[in-house]
Design brief:
2 copies of one chain form a homodimer. With about 450 residues, the first copy, chain A, is of the alpha/beta class. Helices cover about 45% and strands about 15% of the residues of chain A. In chain A, α9 (about 215-220) links the parallel β7 (about 205-210) and β8 (about 230). The longest helix of chain A is centred in the first third of the chain and has 24 residues, at about 80-105. β13 (about 355-360) of chain A pairs parallel with β14 (about 395-405) of chain B.
């Protein structure tokens, strides 16, 4: 079912297939998505309704576009207390994480030389749009984690686009518990285009965040002349680094069970998902392979799992830790689990990864649902240049300087010489005329 | 030459023209740029050479693509000591600013509940590409400010694409002083495509930063499925907020001189540039208008200035400070100068701006050339959602968690309930099997 390869013997095509995995190649859907964007820009709401009828719900009509207070009440009335309680707990844990992030985001100021003060202050993006994908099931977890991040940043207007399919009660509850008051039932590229360019009902936002299918990702990429995005998001992926050490009290059989379960949990997301185990132990590799085959039998989403395992997944036996770390930094996994003796020592060597899970009691699933960390993460190697969604995503810096006469006096010769090189004489003049009268001013 | 409007009486078309200014509408150049990108992806270096011969230098040939050590020596041998000295001073001041930024970027870790540790560490983007635009003159200032930011972040491989036109000695010196060892002579959309997708000579990077013309901006936007970018950069712009207070020792005539000079310095960048003055004083407005007309006579780039002033520039008389602040936050200027009594009080109210210049002795030009702050800034209203380029631009967060048995035990019920809602049973199983044996482990 899953292949075992030795990292220093694997064929180039096999290694390339694993490393490249399912890329965000938008070429296949690009022209269709461009059509959708043009329709939304020219026809607004009526195009939104038409697309939604066509692709999501034949019964859809304009009044369904906007979620009402009555819809929210209906959601609470039809959802079990246990679920509502657990959504609230998710939000509470997410707030702790994102508020701690917020505390790291600090204004600063420094006098670098006499009369030259520089600094930066952080402000929230004013209007943001959250994209919450839908499927056969509702995804309240995505709704709450995006909303908590944006709320913690202090965004003024936060809107949410949720799936028009099904009831999505849990998503509505998650949105409401986070204080999101503007929710629309629209999905796909049309939702992204509406948030980017605005329609009669949905007014445009400054930034869009949230994962989606290839159409959504293509729309996010194609609307970037108008709107900022969190990142292009692709299929989910995991790399698990496990060694054969048993000093932490876990025998090889137990380790194999955990590795298999965590890999399977990742690839149940879809047929394009990727699950990689890296180990220096041939024994552990074999045990994990057997465990995957065994545990697979119990799962409900076997089609997805089967496809994902046979395409982009593998167990890789690395000659040593060094090769494993090199592979990880090159692969830049969305999720990285470290099931070794001293996981924190290894964390120090990791440069490129979205979210790292240390310890044997820390499967990705607990991070997805409960730890409070953000699970909207860079995929497809984007961890080489992007960060997880977080409070930072919804904030930005305003740089400033404050210079007095003595500071400008110190800098004037640089401006003079370099503005001549660059041929910008009005630049030079704007500095020089400050010294035309020898009059001392205060500020 | 420049129009004066009262902010509460201005016609909607005039206000819209001013507020919208020259947008980054890539539609006009998109199909041409897509062709260029495809050529680079399919033909590599040979397309680079062909485009460069066609558009930049008919004498260009493949060996000119890569800057050599001999080229660097030639640059030093043919450049005056004064210029070299001033470039070094620019770099030194830029380092102070960007290293102070670097000190704000801190790893953190927190135990949020017993057995649940979360944290983040910052790492540098490994491979980055800097785009240094060229024109009639060389722009060493852009080269050094981008290079200092990337170097301070700790990027491993930093490449620079500079204009193939002219000698660009000062740019080569700036690059060399910053420790950039990989420099290519290629510009326009073809440079962006080469850095994004790679050619035989230029290997692909993870992130591209730097300003450019509409072709460069379009290429940056269109390559975002493959590469991250700093932001789409458009024509330069300034908003100057000035009041009639004279308590800081500046009379109205002096203020008017400064405002006019700083506005002219901004609009000499190009015919699409924008210069706006906001004031509550009709007298000051008139004086600034006269000063602009007077100072204009002395400038060398009169064509650019004339076009820019008559299209997107204006002097706006606001009824009060509140309306001025609202205008600024809506406009989100690249540069904002505050020439009022208590500029720091006003800074507190500014949410959307790239770089803010406080005080009468702080023209934008000194920030461009000497203060050490970054002058690659969000234009066209992108300050609503983007930050100036800086050390942050070249870094990213790796999120992590470390959970032990008691922590997972606390979170298990949330995973159970929510994974059922979302229909992901392998997620639940990966948590549950950690509790199948009641054996206490260490980590």
């Amino acid at each position: 079912m899953i292949n075992i390869y030795e990292l220093n013997k694997i064929s180039k095509p096999a290694l390339d297939r694993i490393k490249n995995r399912s890329q965000n190649d938008i070429d296949k859907v690009k022209s269709k998505v461009e059509e959708i964007i043009t329709s939304i820009r020219t026809k607004g709401d009526s195009a939104l309704v038409q697309f939604t009828k066509e692709w999501d719900d034949p019964e859809f009509s304009f009044p369904r576009l906007t979620v009402t207070k009555a819809d929210i009440r209906e959601a609470y009335n039809n959802t079990g207390k246990e679920i509502i309680e657990k959504v609230k707990e998710q939000i509470s844990l997410a707030r702790t994480f994102h508020e701690t992030q917020r505390q790291q985001i600090r204004d600063w100021e420094k006098e670098t030389e006499r009369g030259i003060i520089v600094g930066e202050k952080w402000t929230a993006v004013d209007k943001v749009g959250l994209y919450v994908p839908g499927g056969k099931n509702p995804f309240p977890t995505v709704q709450q984690i995006l909303a908590v991040a944006a709320k913690t940043a202090g965004c003024n207007r936060i809107i949410s686009c949720i799936s028009p399919k099904g009831k999505n009660y849990e998503v509505l509850i998650a949105a409401n518990e986070c204080g999101i008051e503007e929710i629309y039932r629209v999905s796909g590229a049309q939702a992204i285009a509406a948030m980017a360019y605005g329609t009669e009902t949905i007014s445009a936002v400054d930034l869009i965040a949230g994962p989606g299918n290839p159409y959504v990702t293509a729309a996010k990429i194609l609307c970037q002349a108008k709107v900022a995005i969190d990142m292009p998001a692709g299929p989910s992926e995991i790399v698990i680094l496990a060694d054969a050490s048993t000093s932490s009290g876990f025998d090889l059989n137990t380790k194999a069970k955990y590795c298999a379960a965590d890999l399977l949990a990742q690839v149940e997301h879809g047929p394009d998902s990727a699950g990689i185990v890296l180990t220096d132990s041939k024994d552990l590799a074999q045990l994990i392979k057997s465990e995957i085959e065994k545990q697979f039998q119990r799962l409900s989403r076997q089609n997805y799992v089967k496809a994902a395992i046979s395409t982009y997944s593998a167990i890789l036996i690395a000659p040593s830790l060094t090769e494993s770390i090199d592979f990880i930094n090159d692969y830049a996994p969305e999720h990285l689990e470290i099931l070794t003796e001293n996981p924190k020592t290894i964390l120090k060597l990791i440069n490129n990864a979205g979210s790292v899970f240390l310890g044997h009691y820390n499967p990705v699933a607990v991070g997805d649902y409960a730890t409070g960390i953000n699970h909207c993460l860079p995929t497809c190697g984007w961890a080489r240049r992007s960060s997880p969604v977080g409070t930072w995503t919804f904030m930005k810096r305003v740089q400033y300087s404050h210079i007095n006469q003595s500071g400008l006096n110190r800098l004037q010769p640089i401006v003079k010489t370099i503005s001549q090189v660059e041929g910008l004489d009005a630049h030079q003049r704007s500095v020089d005329l400050r010294f035309e009268k020898e009059k001392v001013h205060v500020s």
